[in-house]
Design brief:
There is one protein chain. This protein is α/β, with parallel strands linked by helices. The chain has a single domain, classed as Vaccinia Virus protein VP39 (Rossmann fold, 3-Layer(aba) Sandwich). It is 29% helix and 30% strand. The chain is built from six helices and nine strands. Strands 3-2-1-4-5-9-8 form a seven-stranded mixed beta sheet, with helices on both faces. It has a two-stranded antiparallel sheet with strand order 6-7. Helix 1 crosses helix 2. 37% of the residues are buried.
Length: 180
Amino acid sequence: MPSSRFLATAMLDQVEFRKVRNLVELGSGTGVITQEILRRMSPDSRLFALEINRHFVRHLGTCCPDTRLTVLHADASDLLNQLAAHNAGSIDVVISSLGLTGMTPEHRARIVRQAEACLAPAGIMMQFQYVTSLAPVPDLPNRQLRRFQEGEFLKKYFPSVSAKPVLLNLPPALVFTCRK
């Protein structure tokens, strides 16, 4: 389901776009947040959008014809290699729409480690989680129900993590601001 304008606003209002030069978007999807990032970016900023779905990659190229945008058909777990291949330098902001809840613990850890590693010293990462993702899910190998708490997970990688609810999004979401 595409992100709503309410979610896009909540994700991006924490970003001081006038100070930002290099941004990364993880999981660009249909481009709802991508378009809003491009609208707010300064003329000399660059956005690297990683998307694993080739149909969305093609769609982004069509819906977002902007020279500041580099669309990369890649898994977010390969972020550092992708940025190095494009001489990106340090990143000021990572904006993630990835569904970390549905990933294996190893995959989500690799993605967040790479996002943290690419950030400039004062960089931030924005991540959201639908509140419906807070429901317990079966952990079949361990024969128990588990609940993935994204905020607690992000605190393993960032010293400062705050959350803001976005109740007007369907489904409602929590937006996490993670600071180095």
